[in-house]
Amino acid sequence: MPPIEPIDSTASEQSLENWYLVTVRSKKREVFLKFLNLAISQNQLQDLVIEIKSPQDAVYQDIVLLKTSNFKNAYIQLKKVECFQNIERKPLALTQVNRMLGIG
Fold first, then answer.
1. Which of 55, 68, 89, 100 is the most exposed place for a label (fewest CB within 10 A)?
2. What DSSP assignment string belongs to 53-87?
């Protein structure tokens, strides 16, 4: 076996950017997004929370799609945000994200 080499941190961070399904309290998505954006700017979390999307279909009214570079740190920060309920541990496939957003 070849020797194990340390992974370049910039390369690993890029490959670890995944989409996760976040559930919020019933009918509180807009409030959650407001507090999430406030937390991102106050705590300089722009490198952690890469992108936020809100599916428009009514069936997803309590769901936010979050692209993050680090699940564990994102979960720690999300727990502090008003109206947050849960984040699924398993990353979403890009096809699932696009379907939820009505793309393709």
1. 89
2. E---SGGGTTEEEEEES-HHHHHHHHTTSTTEEEE
- List the pLDDT tens digit at each of the 104 positions of the chain: 555 554 444 433 444 799 999 999 999 999 999 999 999 999 999 999 999 999 999 999 999 999 999 999 999 999 999 999 999 999 999 999 999 999 97
This prediction's pTM: 0.83
Closest of 62, 53, 59 to residue 98, by C-alpha:
53
Which DSSP category does 26 fall into?
T
